[in-house]
Amino acid sequence: MSPAIPAIHLENVHLTLASEAGPVNILQDIHLHIDAGETVSLVGPSGSGKTSLLLLIAGLEQASAGRIALSGHDITAMSEDELALLRRDQVGIVFQSFHLIPTMSALENVAVPLELSGASDAFSRAEAALSAVGLSHRFTHYPSQLSGGEQQRVALARALAPRPKILLADEPTGNLDLETGARIIDLMFERAHAIGATLLLITHDPALAGRCRRQLHMADGQIVRDSARVAA
Amino acid sequence: MAPPMTRSSLFLPFRLAARELRAGTHGFRLFIACLVLGVAAIAGIGSISAAAIAGIATNAKAILGGDMEVRLTHRDATPEELAAIQRYGQISHVIEMRAMAKPVTNGALPVLVELKAADDAYPLYGALTLSSQKPLSELLARQPDGAYGALAHRVLLQRAHLDIGDRLTVGTAHFVITAAIEREPDATTQVFALGPRMLISQAALGATGLVQPGSLVYHSYRIKTAPTVDRVAAAEALNAAFPSAGWRIRQLEDAGQRTRDFLENTRAYLDLIGLSALLIGGLGIANAVRAHLEGKARIIAMLKCIGATTGQIAATNLITIGVMAAISIAIALVIGAAMPFAFQASLARVDVDIAAGIYPAPLARAAGFGALTALAFSLPSLLRARRTKPAQLFRAAAIELGTVNRKDIIAVGLAGLALAALVVATAENRVLAAGFALAAVATLAAFRGLAAIIQAAAHRTQRRMKPGRSARALRFALATLGRRSAPVASIVLSIGLGLTVLIAVALIQGSILSDFARSMPARAPSFYFIDIQPDQVAALQSTVMATPGAHDFERVPMLRGRITRMNDVPVEQITAPKDHEWVLRGDRGLTWSAAPPPDARIAAGQWWAKDYKGDPLISLDSGTAEAFGLKLGDTITVNLLGREVTGKIANLRDVDWSSFSINFVMVFSPGLMESAPQTSIATVRVPEGEEGGLMNRVAEKYPNISAIRVKDALATALDLLTQVGSAIRGTALATLGAGILVLAGAIAAGREKRIYEAVLLKMLGGRRRDIALGYLWEFTLLALVSAALAIILGTLGAWLFLSLNLETDLVVAPALLVGILALALALALVLGFWGSWRALGAKAAPFLRNE
Fold this sequence. Notes:
The structure holds two protein chains of two kinds. By secondary structure, chain A is of the alpha/beta class. Chain A contains eight helices and ten strands. In chain A, the strands form two sheets. Chain A has a six-stranded mixed beta sheet, sandwiched between helices. A four-stranded antiparallel beta sheet of chain A has the order 2-1-4-5, covered by helices on one side. In chain A, β4 (65-70) and β5 form a beta hairpin. The two termini of chain A are 23 Å apart. Chain B has 27 helices and 21 strands. A six-stranded mixed beta barrel of chain B has the order 2-3-8-5-7-6. The radius of gyration of chain B is 34 Å and the shape is elongated. In chain B, 45% of the residues are buried. The A-B interface holds A 51, 54-55, 58, 60-61, 78, 80-82, 84-89, 92-93, 95, 97, 99, 101-104, 108, 112-113, 115-120, 122, 158-159, 170 and B 1, 3-6, 8-9, 12, 15-16, 19-20, 22-23, 298-299, 301-312, 389-391, 393-395.
């Protein structure tokens, strides 16, 4: 039996950004292997490189060196549009600030990624995704008419509706109160599990990090501890 | 990995754009206003001009006076010629000449009139509108006391203070005014005439004794042809039957040619001013699109995060902007299309009958300009938007649009080039349009450069200034201006471009008017005397020179003839350059002379010997020679009273047509010409106070001689210029309006930032007065520097236009420039403070709480 293709694979990845004071090494020599269906949290102090790592994995930032593969596709040499299409088909993203489109209703917001992929049943699938996060009564509401928690649920439905293989979340509860945040997290784990998506989330919350099977600790642009590996 | 093109994804950008547009046009008000203003100006100008030209075509039969016209100068048709003309249909014979009409009832000065003697068939087409309902024959009939009935145009009644029933003399005949002419069907407009119209019978014309050999008399035979007549074949047959008749046969297509040319010229200039308004509005469009897309940058970044390609982003935004442009253009076209209806009545007052209607061609052209302007000015932000970096969503507080690369610059350049190409391709005067396009680019670049210099200088000066109480506000202003994000370019361009156009237009108009009002009368003689019979020359000279202060009496013989061939090529086969069509169009004044004219500059060849009596030689105006490619030794054939005379070009003369002295395109050698029937033309200068007396004496002693007072002729021309001037000023106001819109938009766009800064300054102890003083410095500096460059560029533009197009000197009116500076300052301060007032009064707490 051939080994399963990893959901996320990084080899010897470096990220150096130019600044007025000269080049800054953001990430150094990152090696990472995440299997399909794993739940992984990314923790560490501000400026440790968590967001940069997430951006590299989402294809939103170009690595200075090394190789990154998502579900077996090497993304390091892909063009901007090829990366967009890869995200469309394989990656869902949940932001801290939701980033819903204010001129579109909840249903339309969720349908957008499906429409981008040319799905003719975009709206029925969007309805299903919204219903799955408990918002079947909010289809026609605009973001400004929704509470913070509801907005994040719409954002979650939008990220999951195309059934991505990878779900990336950047401090998804950062803008929510504890109780609402907890409900969103339950929902996120449940939905990610339901569609078999690999979950990689950034958080400052140790309890949330602890819900993931694996914890990656970052400091100074490096993964300093991989708790799952330690546990193994 | 190419995206699968399903029908659904193909239409996705349309769906996304539609969802965006559901929010309404709120963020697009400036965009719409700028585009509507510019496109409506161009559409309106084009529509009115098309309606006026269509009006001429619609009324062509009335304007020409028939279906075709055979026109003879100096003589009437021979019985054989008349018989031939009559074969094609009913004819009306109309005789026209200039003459002096002397009111007898109120002792007023004689007035130069355009005399017209009509037959009973007049008018064949159209209607003569008179103040009386009586039949024409009755109104023109001889009265029991021997006076003839005459119809006077309302301008004649005004000018000579006459009324119906008043009497006047023309030549040796007495007339009584029986009715006023309200509208003459075969006169397109009075503005080209040297004098007002007086209509009499042909018997009355005979009684005046004015028609003598060599008098400048025009005989028109208008023909109402039967429907079966082929007019072109008829003209060819008449020419073939009477090859040396020397007549000019005009067809319906030639009707109102002079008015058409005039309208087209006026339109060309108005069009460029309208285009300026559109281009200035383009800046507003650029600002509005940038603000819109910057506001949308977060959504664009998010869409890219979830898989939208750069193409889908670009298409969605292009569709949104395109829909807004289409709405704006549609509004503008409705306004433009309505213009002919709105101006119909006021144009009718100056005898221009326009065919009010909807004219698709000028509307399509305006729409094309609008679409290309919207595209060219939106493109930089549209291209940047598709490159918005989605990673900013995770990091930056404010999302910025992407950067511009070389390909983008090429795309924007191509859009600009397409706009310039449309300007040049659809212009009447392509050289002028190309010059305009170049000037527009240069002006835009100059103001952009100025903005960069202001920012750099402000930045540097502010850093060098020592902190102190006195210059605190100035330092605050310089710091604001020096900031990279400050809208200096928008403000400088919006103030500067509008003012540049305004200054150029005002200086051009001012220079032309000053030329007419001051320079020309100073150069010109006081009078032209025409139709002087050979035996009157000596007597007239002594009468005229007896006037106190009279000087510079000049006289030359004059004949009228029509050029029929150049180098043996019939003129019908020669295509004249647009600005020299007049040389071939009608008959030309010719003279002959043994010696060169006193101030002649011979450019090529040599003047003939004083005693030369050989074959006719010609001295030709060098401009005409160049226009028709004629050189020394070439021949020109002229028809003089039915006789063809061919002369060889012996020399070329440089003629200054603006000098107002007697000038002729062609001067013949003596000999053959001396024996032809001819009259003389003379000029003289007399002190202004003597003009009336001289007019009276000449009218009394020599009733057949017409005295054209140059002052009156200039006043007529000035009148026309003033009318055109008001149209030009109206259009120039559109450019100023566009500038104001753009300026207001630029200031409004920075309002939130200003409020935030003011709040921070107040929190740190700044007083409202300090902040207000800072704004005062900022807007004053920007206004004065922009206006200064606008004055330089506007003056340069006016000078180039005047010297290249009109050969007129630039007259700079300091009061005008001071006024423009004041206007710039007022605009900048009013709009600046309007945009910043809220910042001054803003309370700190709400802003800081939201932070």
